[in-house]
Amino acid sequence: MSGEMFGDEVDIKARLRAAEVMYKKFHRLISDVIKGRPPKLEIPKRTLSNTIFDPERGILVIGEEKLEREFLNVGESRRFMQTLLMASIIYQSLIENEYPTIRDLYYKGKHTIVYRDYTGRKREENTWDEQKESDSVIQDIEVYTGLFREDMLILSKEKGKVVGNMRIRSGGDVIDLSKLGHGAYAIEPTPDLIEFLDVDAEFVLVVEKDAVFQQLHRAGFWKKYKALLVTGSGQPDRATRRFVRRLHEELNLPVYIITDSDPYGWYIYSVYKVGSITLSYESERLATPKAKFLGVQMTDIFGYRGKKPYLSEAERKKFMIKATDKDVKRAKELLNYSWIGKNRRWNVEIRLFLKHLVKLEIEAIASKGLKFFAHQYIPEKIETGDWID
Amino acid sequence: MSGEMFGDEVDIKARLRAAEVMYKKFHRLISDVIKGRPPKLEIPKRTLSNTIFDPERGILVIGEEKLEREFLNVGESRRFMQTLLMASIIYQSLIENEYPTIRDLYYKGKHTIVYRDYTGRKREENTWDEQKESDSVIQDIEVYTGLFREDMLILSKEKGKVVGNMRIRSGGDVIDLSKLGHGAYAIEPTPDLIEFLDVDAEFVLVVEKDAVFQQLHRAGFWKKYKALLVTGSGQPDRATRRFVRRLHEELNLPVYIITDSDPYGWYIYSVYKVGSITLSYESERLATPKAKFLGVQMTDIFGYRGKKPYLSEAERKKFMIKATDKDVKRAKELLNYSWIGKNRRWNVEIRLFLKHLVKLEIEAIASKGLKFFAHQYIPEKIETGDWID
């Protein structure tokens, strides 16, 4: 069979690396058994209490607490066995050149074990019932091995796109991200396998919404202002976040983020910046703690002290949307996040929101004219440092 | 200002073309007024009763019925004015090199008209309240002018992706769709502006799900079988549908579609094939009536007469998901669509579904092994003609 069927060299190297780590990490269990010790896994806890905001690095990280999973413990043996089952499926996929998705892994492992209990009665037990269960096992394997699922060539649905003055290498091809016409480069599920070749850009601009990305792209924004233009199409997936983080870290580029001016948009910014709360162990590689919130800010709408608003009274009336109870609840939750609640400018933002109880979409700014949005609003805010850190 | 700020030459030409059509279509109203005739718009009706399935062409089309919108008619003047307001905003956007989205157009036109009625009382009237209203006006303008919103450089969120042995020209750039590494080409919002340069492919494979697209891409499917691989990430947007249609029509390539084996997946296939019911006027350019449903078929799961199932009894037990009441309702609705209800093989499919009351995801097939899925299931079905027309 041709080599193409097994993916390219980049993938093969990644497979070998991941398979080796998995082998080492799980081989210990065999030594345990041989030495007569009860086999046991020590896995960092993925609980909220073990999720810590590291102010120095500015990201959420997983703490020191670990849980033990023993085979010879009735309360833990099910999860112990699930973990080994999943690890063996992933390992098998690695060496057999498969590219499973997390949904595949759920299906691959799903079966019913029929056995007789100590009374001789026939019993049945499912390996897992729902994908939630198998996903959680994959997460355990990620924190246990220190490998991300992407490192294990587990693929997923991807929504991220990029254009800009940059060339990258992916899977053996060189792609010029400035030569994609009206289209864009759809970011791959394994962004760590991308090689950055050369770049002529001064900053990264991440826009929440794909339609706004299309507009800025078409208006030539990235060419004129030397930007790398990225969208995650709403709540960003892991690959988009990792890609943005790498642009920041390896190319030393500032990252500006534009979302709707509402608690949902602010949370999207927060996910890019510090990571998601439920999966803090990812943040170490996915978060971009220095990402700046460029807008749309409440102070862009209402002004604040010396700052002149970008919208007139009439435009405010025209564009603003009433906040819902859910928005208000969410805004108050955001204040509880220390990286927001303790930030003076975020306090101003959220106080303005709670005072006026209105929100605003990016499109409202763009509807004042794409020229205004692309060639005044954004560059002026970057120029004058009008962002929230 | 640099030319980049106004989009490329391709866009400028498209703008001029659309502006000219709009000018001609709406200029009539001025002649009406000059000649003392009450200004009136004749717009093809976008109602269900005026939606016809054309069996010859195999698509849904808009019928002959037209509605008249007169300015001097109390019941119609509001919509008449809305139509002219929207047309003028779109025209303005065209000549001012804007790239609005439908959301922008909603915002641009949204305002309150204050006036005094015949009794001298002050009254207020909003141009429109919700985007649903302004969207519907845009659709009227589409059917009235024969221009699609894409022709008028109205942009939108895009989800479609493509890879394969093909080169295209978009916005002045030449893009080689076979040199995108692990990533893909994100299809632009205006696919009619894409120029097909050269192609070395034998068919188009459309997969419903992005994650499955990623898997087949990574497994080198399109290289080995000379396919253009496309995904619309679920319910396809207009650009993806138009792109697929153009691949079929202009390159003469057969189009095979793979979705989940459930009523939702079947409907996605139906949208690619005949168009969506609510927007039948689009079908003339968006639908691909010869698109074939490759799978996942119920007969792939259960077999049928001479056909051997692809799944064993154990695999069926493992992979199948119980259908919900909503699924059943939807399946019965599908039988009412003549292009499904009158098709013998679709009848077999849906009867099997209603008999077993189970559904199956593409991932279940892929989890049998990507090699099985990519290098046996798909090519074998294409080879033996095991699809539904």
UniProtKB/TrEMBL annotation, chains A, B:
Domain spans labelled Spo11/DNA topoisomerase VI subunit A N-terminal: 78-154
Q: Which residues form the Type II DNA topoisomerase VI subunit A all-beta domain?
A: 158-200
Q: Which residues bind Mg(2+)?
A: E208, D260
What would be an example GO MF term here? ATP binding
Against CDD domains, the record matches this protein to:
TOPRIM_TopoIIB_SPO
* GO biological process entries: DNA replication; DNA topological change
The source's superkingdom equals Archaea
Alphabetically list the UniProt keywords.
Answer: ATP-binding, DNA-binding, Isomerase, Magnesium, Metal-binding, Nucleotide-binding, Topoisomerase
Q: One GO CC term of this entry?
A: chromosome
Necessary cofactors? Mg(2+)
Q: Which reaction does it catalyse?
A: ATP-dependent breakage, passage and rejoining of double-stranded DNA
This entry's Enzyme Commission designation comes to: 5.6.2.2
Provide the active-site residues from the annotation. Y107
The keyword Nucleotide-binding belongs to this UniProt entry's keyword annotation:
yes
* Limits of the Topoisomerase 6 subunit A/Spo11 TOPRIM domain: 203-382
- InterPro entries tied to this protein: Spo11/TopoVI_A, Spo11/TopoVI_A_N, Spo11/TopoVI_A_sf, Topo_VI_alpha, TopoVI_A, TOPRIM_Topo6A/Spo11, WH-like_DNA-bd_sf
Q: Pfam families per the record? A: TOP6A-Spo11_Toprim, Topo_VI_alpha, TP6A_N
Family the entry assigns? Belongs to the TOP6A family.
Reported function = Relaxes both positive and negative superturns and exhibits a strong decatenase activity.
HAMAP family noted in UniProt = Top6A
The record describes its quaternary structure and partners as: Homodimer. Heterotetramer of two Top6A and two Top6B chains.
Please identify the protein, giving its name as recorded. Type 2 DNA topoisomerase 6 subunit A
